[in-house]
Amino acid sequence: MTFSMRDLDEALQGCGQKSGIEIWRIENFKPVTVPKESHGKFFTGDSYIVLKTAASRSGSLHHDIHYWLGKDSSQDEAGAVAIMTVELDSALGGRAVQYREVQGHETEKFLSYFKPCIIPQEGGVASGFNHVKPEKHQTRLYICKGKHVVRVPFARSTLNHDDVFILDTESKIFQFSGSNSSIQERAKALEVVQYIKDTYHDGKCDIAAVGK
């Protein structure tokens, strides 16, 4: 079945006409535009469509459509966002490249859109989670592996000598660098630490580096 822009949900109409990134979160099986200031903020209970539009030297437009699935998103929602992606591709001329992005296993291309990383937050639309500010900061431990930043169990036994970890507490962010971790991994983790400080602490918390 062929779709035109007019056949799409109102929130999607007119998209993909200029270079840049557009994002929609799925709410009650309908796409809702995510404002630019919230690009890169994802919630584990939600599903999203991310459209990357790029112009070639000739002026023609190329589209990459990603649909991202949080680890706590429902199967029904995952099915709905996959269908929306196919319909969007059709409306854009049927030449877009489609990507299925699963939390924690995102493609390199998808991760390249969001610097220095994405750190999905717990919650989502269905749970009534407050997407602006959580009521209380939760202590979280992350492992940095390449371009992926993944939350891991908060336990001393999780740490090892090969990786770099970030412990995010209410008043301080710690970077634990394993003795066998590379300079590149440590530098990347430092960017992530600064991102967490600016994004989730309003730039108001201490930072500490700890060797292992």
Automatic annotation (TrEMBL):
CDD domains according to UniProt = gelsolin_S1_like
Q: Does the keyword Repeat apply?
A: yes
Gene Ontology MF terms in the entry: actin filament binding
Q: Which InterPro entries match?
A: ADF-H/Gelsolin-like_dom_sf, Gelsolin-like_dom, Villin/Gelsolin
**Pfam family membership, one:** Gelsolin
Organism equals Brassica cretica (Mustard)
| Domain Gelsolin-like per the UniProt entry, residue ranges | 29-111, 149-199
- Provide the protein name: Gelsolin-like domain-containing protein
Whether Repeat counts among this entry's keywords is yes
**One BP annotation, GO:** actin filament severing
Bilayer-spanning residue ranges: none
Q: Which UniProt keywords apply?
A: Repeat
Q: Which Gene3D superfamilies match?
A: Severin
